[in-house]
Design goal:
six-stranded mixed β-sheet, alpha+beta, single chain, Ribosomal Protein S5, domain 2, 2 domains
Length: 288
Amino acid sequence: MKSNSKSLTLAAAGKTFLIGEYSVLFGGSAIILLTPPPFKLKAEKGNTNLVGIEENSPAYLFFKCHDFSGLSLEFEDPYLKSGGFGASSAQFALLYKLHLRLTGDKFDVGRFLEEYRSLSATKETTILPSGADCVAQYFNHHVFFDAGTNVVRKIDPKFPNLDFAVCKTGRKVITHLHLQSLPPLPTSELQRLTEDAAKSFLNADEELLVKSIRGFFDLLRKQKIIADFTAETADRLLKTDGVAAVKGCGAAGADTILMVFEKRKRDSVLEEARRLGLHNPAPLCSNP
């Protein structure tokens, strides 16, 4: 924040893993898509304080580790702490971005992820978060991220006949508890499907996109790590005219459900989603 500036607002859209959230945990890759409305961090000159961020979260610990003196900071969550679209990762990404503005340091994805993961670790942690969602929200753009190389590639999800929407389920599985109970996963197969999805973006290959998403979700279901509600809802949605692929997102696929469907069927698909108890269908950000 410049010395003559009294206030600053930074924004990061909500995030959803299109594919790869389990493969990226073990050095693979993932594709993260963004949806409105955005989270915001407001910074004003004043007494040093932090509002809207829970104690002991990675963002709170980052605030305590670095110099934000003379700034009154407030995090705004448009989802009112109901979860599902990455409030915690957005908090860290936005605080980190503000920190770089204050210090003049350049962004380095390796250092960014190292700090995020270290601040996410607890005595109970068995698998650290990938931070891929943090990366997407830092750039505020749909991205492909490779955890093995830290390569970040901005992507544009434009397919001629397909559209996307993400709906809240109103349910939640605690992420760190879910990760502690993960069975051995077929990571090589999950990674192959993620790479196929990445290829589909390069060529706007709709058939490959749908095949990879459906294959990824089917593999997770076979490992019995998908919440029953999500699995049942996905089966019903796949019987809906125009729906091409459905995938649960978040821990155990419980937080949100992502749908890929024919553009011309958008209204009827979203109406069916609401009928099945899903809430607030969000489109993808068209220009993050």
